[in-house]
Amino acid sequence: MINKICPSVEAAVADIKDGATVMIGGFGEAGSPIELIHALIDQGARDLTVINNNTGNGQVGLAALIGAGRVRKMICSYPRSSQSKVFPELYRRGEIELELVPQGTLAERIRAGGAGVPAFYTPTSVGTPLAEGKEVREIEGRSYVLEYGLKADFALIRAEKADPLGNLTYYKAARNFGPIMAMAAKTTIVQARQVVEASGIDPEVVVTPGIFVNKVVEVADPAIESVLIEQGVSYP
Asked: What start-end ranges are recorded for coiled-coil regions in this protein (predicted)?
């Protein structure tokens, strides 16, 4: 039987190279794989392109990765946060690039990338600066902007439960971008609160099938959780 369990978060992220494109799950810090992100900081990979809904909160997780100077470019829908000034300060100094994508378009670009759809048309951003330089086509009397699917070298996501085959379930809204990012990356690395036996997850409740997962590491009691609670940041 294939066993995708890794012994540690350090081992899980060891293969991420400089210049890689990395999708990171989470909506704010809900569902964010913070321990994997901090292992990536310790691992040392830099010049990364990161795809995420936002640019992090507080001084942990994605905000810490950005603050460590490891990210060359962010592709996201919400680059500012009242809980973190790391990205805005770097951006104003010209030390990090930004590709701003409307949230629904971001989700669909990731989904399309995982589904093998190279591009699609959407009415979102028509007539705005975000449509500048992009193809615009009229379909049935309405204008649409051409957007391209997003893929990545790696995806770091957080699950509630995993088995050795890589089948995953999520905790409520912490599911967010995890399932589509798992499909859109060449290598998907999962931080799970609980790892169970191969028969420990009812097939009817599996959200992400193991075929989309390459590595799983159990983080049963996230050390960073207490820090986030002190900061008033939700981290289910």
From this structure: none
Q: Tell me the pairing of strands 168-169 and 71-76.
A: unpaired
Helix (H, G, I), strand (E, B) or coil at 63: helix
Residue with tokens 């609980």: 194
Rounded CA separation 95/26 (Å): 24
Residue percentage of the chain with pLDDT more than 70: 92
Q: Is the Cβ–Cβ distance between 126 and 143 less than 8 Å?
A: yes
Residue with tokens 């379909």: 139
DSSP state of 7: S
Distance in angstroms (rounded) separating the CA atoms of residues 227 and 211? 34
State pTM to two decimals: 0.92
Predicted local distance difference test score (pLDDT) of residue 162? 97
Burial pattern 166-191, b for ≥16 Cβ within 10 A else e, equals bbbbbeeebbbbbbbbbbbbebbbbb
Going from the N-terminus, what domains does the chain have, and what CATH number goes with each? 17-121+152-228 (3.40.1080.10)
Distance between CA atoms of 58 and 71, rounded to whole angstroms?
A: 17
pLDDT interval class at 59 (50, 70, 90): confident
